[in-house]
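For reproducibility, we list the full input for the pyridoxal-5'-phosphate complex.
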Amino acid sequence: VELALNRASDVPLYRQVVEQLGELIRSGVLATGSRLPTIRALADTTGLTRLTIQNAYLELGALGYIESHVGRGTFVAARTVPAITIRDSDALPPVSWTTQGILADLLSEPTEGISFARAMPDPASYPLRALQGMLREATEDPVLLGYGPVGGDPLLREGVSRVLLERGVVAPPEAILITNGAMNAIDLTFRTLAQRGDVIFVEQPTYPGALEAAARQGLRVVGLPLDDEGVRMADLESHLVRHQPRFLYLVPTYQNPMGICYSTPRRAQLLALARTHGLTIIEDDIYGLLPFERAAPPPLKAGDTDARVIYLSSFSKSFIPGLRLGMVTAPVAVLADIARTKQHSDLNSSPLLQRALALYLRRGHLGAHLAAVRALYRERCAAMQDALARYLPHCTWTEPEGGLTLWLTLPHGIDEAVVYREALHEGVGVARGQVFYPQPQAEGHLRLSYGAVSPALIEKGIGILGRVVAAHLRRRDALADRARREALPLM
Ligand SMILES: Cc1ncc(COP(=O)(O)O)c(C=O)c1O
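The corresponding predicted structure, in tokenized form, follows.
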């Protein structure tokens, strides 16, 4: 096995070593437990400096591909770690997947085919008739055809206040700012609270829109790993010792992308920690109205006695994304600041669309709509898990109790980028795991959204995905077999 290094390439030599050894490990040519050459030996055979090889080994170690044991040598690790181990220096500006073109992956859908790529509600659920009536009614009021107050349509703020109360959040209408969806709320809040170079904490993995907003604003991001109850407190605490983050951005209820729901004790621990450390939490509750069966736990904001939580949400997932309507509520002074940022950005959200939604809420239609879509998504999520168990038995996945997405972990050594491309070629769109992380990851994941796909098409699409992954597994195993049979010297 030899490395094919290209000295004329723009890619640094140490990076070429990382990529090629990483590929050999992923494909199984270098099997788990095999010993890598010493730094000196590899430097000699490649003609590179020892420092170059050392840097490459360090990075492969950080990515979880290899492990060094003092006195024994360097070996291919049993399993790549789920996320890069965070070091002090890891409060980096997140990689912008947009500028790398990778975020386009998330948005590219098979033109004819099945898409699990986007966290979309089911378009067939949109109450078009009712909406048309409300829009017609709104256009009859000439005031709504002019500019509106920056905070939003008073009638909608009232309606939103009532919706929030059902989530256990007490926010009077004047404490609510209407935004163009949750994305607008995230962008405005980040811009108001943090400045270029500031550190913020996010979940890892998290919503890519938040990462992109942070990247654009030059913020440095620390990603905190999640377990099935939420962000891990030990990691959070140790990072709080090292950094003074402006805020921690969380999606505690039916998290995007993992679909997990923070446990009640974890929510309480987070609130207690925010209190003792003076930490601001931005809580994104965009999926909170979409539990399947068991009621969703109250948001952090419901227990926020110390005004540490800024809460945002939107009607994009629970109702209609095209209205582009969301909200944020925060302590008065902070909200006034966010409102100023909004004024300087886009003046106000569309009065016409706000009023149409306000009328819909005032007439009490949302409850029935939510009951219908929750049943739909519950059925589809179950259909997807059932199909995964049959077609992707080598993978693991989360089991959401609400929301629109689940998180699939690919078997060790299977490259998510290749699976993504091949699935798309076969007419099945998925979201690559990479876009949900602030920095490149070694392990392969896919986010699968089931909300807008019928059970029959879920069955078909997961079947296709299963065949794509199975073909890769066969190739991986054949390569590993060959490596064993030929007892290849490592380098
Ligand atoms: C967690 C999260 N926050 C915010 C958004 C953006 O939502 P909106 O369409 O309301 O701007 C999304 C959309 O996928 C999301 O998943």
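The first strand starts at residue 35 and ends at 36. Residues 455-485 form the longest helix (31 residues). Both points were considered when choosing residues for closer inspection.
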